[in-house]
Amino acid sequence: MNKLRIVLLSILTCSMPLLDTLMAQERYQVGVCDWMVLKRQKLGEFQLAKDLGCEGVEMDMGGLGKREQFDNKMRDPKEAAFFKHVADSLGIRIGAIAMSGFYGQDLTQRDNYLALMDDCFETMNRMGDVKVAFLPLGGCGNGWTVDKAKRKEIVSRLHAIGEAAKAQGKTVGIDTPLDAAGNLKLLKEIKSDGIAIFYKWQTIIENGWDIAKDMRKLGAKNICAIHASNTDSVWLSKDPAINLPLIKQTLDEMGWKGWLFVERSRDVKMVRNVKMNYGANVRYLKEVFNTYPKADVKLDSDGRDAQYVQTIIGRAQKATDELGITWTPLGQNVQNIIANRYFKLNDIYAERDSVKKSDKKLAEAQCDSKLYRSHYGFLADLSMYLKPHEIERVKDVMTFNVVKVTYEAQCDMIPTLKDVEKQQILAWLIEARELAIDAESSKKKHEVFGKYKGRINNYLTKRGYDLTKEREAWYERVKARGGQL
After folding, report:
1. CB 50 within 8 A of CB 75
2. Other residues' Cβ atoms within 10 Å of the Cβ of residue 53
């Protein structure tokens, strides 16, 4: 009996990290705001969310502006059903429906505000019985918090909205400029369980308040969802104003669970790079909240020098940066495949050098054989995650883009090249690239291309080109346009 208890205890102990992860995944879900990733009510938002590693999206109701209604495609039952089908097929949930139009529109100036809410509630039903709606009060300005007449009107309308939401088993989360004390007072005035706070870290930071303390004071039951980001500046992982581990600890202790949606926190140096910005933020959130999935491809780093491993990971990341997938689950797998390729090459050449000491011919033969098999194995591994044109880009990054640079230089140097000659030059450069990928160092890679450049020069000379004169004329043209060779 004692042995059985020991075995069961061992199994339970070993499975605890997995159980913790599963519990975290159940408690916290991470998504992105579709209007911020440039996919407002577009089918592509679901595939993008999946690529970023999200559990879901916060779908917007569409623009409002001076319209009578939201520009809402989901008002059409067939369109909504199709969107829902695509989301389901990708395993992506609609975590909340947003009325972002009220960032710029004053709720108190909309006589049809209840009709707008009904449109939102109906959309929530069509998209899978979504429970939370987002209603920003930004369009009302900030003066309403002290303007008694306007505050009274906002409170009255929010009470009506809350009661309508509660009747359908839903919650409308409002975004206000208030701290916890102010929000608690406002909720008490509204007197409806159908209204809660859609908590926004950016507001707290901009006012110099403490996120953890403010959330704790507000209480778990009053927070229906969280916009887990700051204004655009740097990624969450680099933002000194956000102590994410402390925030996670606070939410754990509060017993809160729900959706964390990334709205902003884009790197201003590349604000338009959706995948890099939101991929980085989603990954950091999921890592801290223990919901980030491990890569399917294991990094072959065991027994290797830590500094060397980091160097190789950095080298591999150049390719995933080029594809814009570095901070996504897809990018993590691709990065590991590329890094493992570098590790494999290092192992093959290390073994060759060792065998060379006793049998040089055998060493080269074994090396060539292993390079051949690993070359195609590498491409096959990439094909599990990337499309053919993406694999080509990976090859180019791994060979310093020599194909593109050399080909464009040849065409620029000799403007009179015929199509058949251009095709031959490109074919040889691509062939060189396949060999260079297997080379043991950057020097050896360039040596491979050097041999093929010699072949190209011989080819062009036989075709009647005077390369010396072509190069001199090219130099003058480049100089004339302010460049240099």
Report:
1. no
2. 22
Q: Helix/strand/coil (H, E, C) string of 389-416?
A: HHHHHHHHHHCCCHHHHHHHHHHHHCCC
Alpha-carbon distance of 336 to 333, in angstroms, equals: 5
pLDDT at 320 (0 to 100): 94
CB 48 within 8 A of CB 37: yes
Per-residue pLDDT of 198-209, as tens digits, reads 999 999 999 999
DSSP designation for 157: H
pLDDT in tens, 305-335: 999 999 999 999 999 999 988 888 899 999 9
| Short-list 45, 413, 34, 61, CA closest to 422 | 413
Q: What is the DSSP string of 76-103?
A: SHHHHHHHHHHHHHTT-EEEEEE-GGGG
Compute the distance between CA of residue 446 and CA of residue 451 in angstroms, rounded to an integer.
9
Report the range out of 283-292, 446-455, 475-484 with the highest average pLDDT.
446-455
CA–CA distance from 296 to each of 46, 316, 391 (Å)? 21, 17, 19
How much is the pTM?
Answer: 0.76
Q: Select the more confidently predicted residue: 484 or 178.
A: 178
Round to whole Å and give the CA distance between 311 and 438.
Answer: 18
Contact, 204 vs 179, CB < 8 A? yes
* Among 7-21, 222-236, 319-333, 404-418, the least confident range: 7-21
Q: CA–CA distance from 445 to each of 224, 372, 432, 436, 442 (Å)?
A: 56, 16, 9, 5, 5
Residue 48, SS3?
helix
126 C-beta neighbours (distance < 10 Å), count? 20
Residue type, 99: M
> CA distances (Å), 16 to each of 9, 20, 22, 99, 144, in order?
11, 6, 10, 40, 50
Please check whether residue 244 is in contact with residue 288, taking contact to mean a CB–CB distance below 8 angstroms. Answer: yes
Structure tokens at 135: 């209603």
Task: Give the Cα-Cα-Cα angle 239, 242, 245 (nearest 5 degrees).
Answer: 115
Q: At what angle do helices 467-480 and 442-462 cross, to 10 degrees?
A: 110
312: which 2 tokens?
A: 């190789």
At 117, list the tokens. 């809410």
- Long-range contacts, 467-472 (Cβ 8 Å, 24+): 470/413, 470/414, 471/413
Coil/strand/helix, residue 31: strand
What is the enclosing helix (H) or strand (E) of 261? strand 258-262
Instruction: Write the CA distances from 326 to 313, 335, 382, 417, integer angstroms.
Output: 11, 7, 15, 39
**Two tokens, residue 369:** 């054989």
